What we know:
The complex is a heterodimer of chains A (about 240) and B (about 300). Chain A has about 240 residues and is mainly alpha-helical. Chain A contains nine helices and no strands. The two termini of chain A are about 30 Å apart. Chain B is built from eleven helices and ten strands. Chain B has helices at about 40-50, 70-75, 95-105, 110-125, 140-150, 170-185, 200-205, 220-225, 230-270, 275-285, 295-304; strands spanning about 1-10, 15-25, 30-35, 55-60, 65, 80-85, 160, 190-195, 205-210, 215-220. In chain B, a hairpin with a 2-residue loop joins β9 (about 205-210) and β10 (about 215-220). The longest helix of chain B is centred in the last third of the chain and has 39 residues, at about 230-270. The termini of chain B are far apart. Classes of the chains: A mainly alpha (about 240), B alpha/beta (about 300).
Amino acid sequence: MLQSFGKYLLFMQSLFTRKESAKILFGRTLDEAILIGINSILIVAIVSTFIGAVTCVQVAYNLDNAFIPRSTIGFMVREMTILELAPTITSIVLAGKVGSSIAGGLGTMQITEQVDALEVMGINSASYLVLPKVVAAILVFPMLVILAMFLSILGGYLAGTLSGELTPQEYITGIRDQFIPYNITFALIKSVVFAFLISTISSFRGYNTSGGALEVGAASTAAVTNSVIAILIGDFVLAYILL
Amino acid sequence: MIEIHNIHKAFGDKKVLDGVSGVFETGKTNLLLGASGTGKSVLLKCIVGLIKPDLGSVTFDGTYFTNNKLDIRQEIRRKIGMLFQGSALFDSMTVEENVGFPLRMLTEMSKEERRERVDFCLRRVGLEGANKKMPSEISGGMKKRVGIARAIAPNCTYLFCDEPNSGLDPQTALKIDELIKEITEEYNITTIIVTHDMNSVIEIGDKIMFLYEGKKLWEGTRDEIMDTDIKELNDFIFANRLMRDAKKVEEEEREEEREEEERRHEAENHTPAPSQETVQTQNEPQLKNPEGPAATTQTDNHQV
């Protein structure tokens, strides 16, 4: 484990040595941002909308008390969404989708000697292939998390009002109640850290694949499980430090 | 000219290369010959710097490469073109983008100049018009040609080919060999080819280095290789010949059997025998079976 961590650190160092020109990196980063961001919008939208809806219904079920105002449901949906559900659940979903895709792609390039082909040309393959993925993930994840926050709160609104648990006015009152802007900052910091963890861990797993198709599958699985564990540990550490 | 001196490499306890030295001349096709697992590909990767040798040195035209400064190694690497065993074309790029990739990365050429150079290289390897195809849409032989075009695109001084005709039929393999030979002579580059195919030796081998269990056992020209008295090399040549002869005999027997079958069929029915393709199609498992579930199970069993 310690050896793997050491290799991971060396791998991170290799990303920043012998970088390609800014123009090439910019182009590659845009390509990766499209792959990571645009292609993940649908899954993020579906997951976050339903999570918001389910949260609203379950909070309403637990707060079935005449002494508690119904607007509390909206308040709780907002707090849970911004602080935890949007950044963490979105990142876990993206660890599955983006992480496995990164590890699978790099693993396949490694076993088919495409990485060697880059090295022979005198190109730093780690920097050329991985750095744009990391930068793109760091740029795109916060946007996806903001989208997830919005859709999750919207999902709660739709579920709450359509099921008759509370009125639209009550939900909006709850949403606006005791709003702390720092929570948004906290969620965005989390999303950046998770983006870094997912992209680097998955790249590390994929880049160090050797063998055949079986090993590429194993690398993808390892990338997802390691990323999810890293997200959960990171989530706790950030909450402890920043809240 | 490439010189290697006393190259040693081990993976754990397994010694793969044991003090290999030699000179690979410019304008000639230098062959690294040997059976599988004798360290040919590892030696090639040590020469191009993909694997770091435990001991020994590589020199390109007098410039020390192994363990030299990164800048100098990068400079030399930019003169290297390499054709990999599986072609190693970038899946996400078209043929044109693959060939133009080193030009885009390593040169200051304009888009137009790059396009002209790509067209020239593709024409040179006989692939004009394949620009927009993806690697998944072309055959193994064409992939090798694209690999060669990509290798020569930035005007390489050194060309390395790792088993360039593996997985190809003998006719295509011969064409690829001839193409490499032509390019080597035309551009006066230093070419090193890893192979275990005696056909390549006979067709294009100007200078041959025979590796056995990580050691250089013999070095010489293709005219000298048949007169050698080294047992391991003679065994290798004999095994290669046997394999070729066995393949030939097998093909002849199959052809004879087919002709016999056709004659018998014609004699029995006074009708021509079904062609080979028809027989194959009839024997293939059917994907959709109109006969119902029972018949489908039969097909599934056949596939298992």
